[in-house]
Write a structure and sequence with these properties.
- Helix 7 packs across helix 8.
- Strand 10, helix 6 and strand 11 form a beta-alpha-beta unit.
- By secondary structure, the protein is of the alpha/beta class.
- It contains eight helices and 13 strands.
- The radius of gyration is 20 Å and the shape is globular.
Length: 285
């Protein structure tokens, strides 16, 4: 009898060990807010702007760089995020509260590729090229690496792009300011990635919207199947309160230092892109 029990325990242990090995193999995607005008963790500086650090994909990605280089780099240090580990920088748009920390960053790591929305800005390109940084101008949707996509340039007066992560829970969208309209970003994501939208977070640019306008936007979120919104930065405190009313505890409370974790996609070789993303050759400009 004892022998049977020991054999059962051994088999159970092997089974549990295999399951955990599988979970360890699939791993996690981690996003950390480095810069925001809302606080979340002690020891970090708040300031108007936004930045997010993405780990766990084939490439480590920095999305936007906040407004002030010293604040940005100080927060990176407190959060123990190594600038030299970054492979790709994505700039959502050219406002200073999203690009201000870039030059301080490339002083520490100039081996990155910086993806910026088209059309090309010569002065911006020259400043980075002088430091040996590779700049890629993005007009159409494109793949950065497996399960990581850019929406491509959107909008008219203010051109902006957003970042999409393919996770085991669905698409995760990171926005800068959503000047082109947060609902338009959601719809564009649906065109690019054949997955439900799990989470969208960042600036939603709703501070000047009326309560009725925000209510309409919230209805669109629900109609498009967004599970968890994370409004912050330029969304506006009243609009954030409305999202919390509408989504309850599924509305993420964000700020500097907030860490969000998502499971990696479990299906190997699964294709998420409806249309081939642009794969132009990288060019040093």
């Amino acid at each position: 009898m004892r022998k049977i029990v020991l054999m059962a325990v051994a088999v159970l242990g092997l089974s549990v060990g295999s399951r955990y090995a599988c979970a360890e193999e699939t791993g996690q995607i981690t996003t950390t807010i480095v810069y925001d005008n809302y606080p979340c963790a002690e020891g970090l500086k708040t300031d108007w702007g936004f930045s997010c650090f993405v780990q766990g994909m084939d490439k480590t990605i920095l999305f936007d760089t906040g407004r002030q280089g010293d604040v940005f780099m100080a927060n990176m240090e407190v959060l123990k995020l190594d600038p030299c580990s970054v492979d790709v920088v994505v700039i959502s748009h050219f406002h200073g509260d999203h690009t201000g920390g870039l030059e301080a960053f490339v002083e520490r790591n100039s081996k990155v590729t910086v993806y910026v929305p088209a059309p090309k800005r010569d002065e911006f390109a020259r400043r980075l090229a002088a430091k040996g940084v590779e700049v890629v101008w993005v007009d159409k949707p494109r793949t950065l690496c497996p399960n990581v996509y850019l929406t491509g340039s959107m909008g008219e007066r203010i051109i902006e792009q957003s970042l999409i992560l393919g996770t085991g829970e669905g698409s995760v969208i990171i926005t800068g300011c959503s000047h082109q309209g947060i609902v338009e970003i959601l719809r564009k994501t649906k065109e690019i990635v054949d997955r439900p939208i799990d989470t969208v977070f960042g600036g939603f640019h709703l501070a000047q919207h009326s309560r009725a306008q925000v209510e309409r936007i919230i209805r669109e979120f629900k109609a498009l199947g967004v599970a968890r919104p994370g409004p912050t930065h330029c969304t506006g405190s009243e609009a954030i309160a409305q999202f919390r009313e509408a989504f309850g505890n599924k509305c993420l409370k964000l700020g500097v230092g907030k860490v969000l974790r998502f499971p990696k996609r479990l299906a190997s070789g699964e294709t998420a892109v409806r249309r081939p993303a642009s794969r132009e050759r990288l060019s040093r400009r």
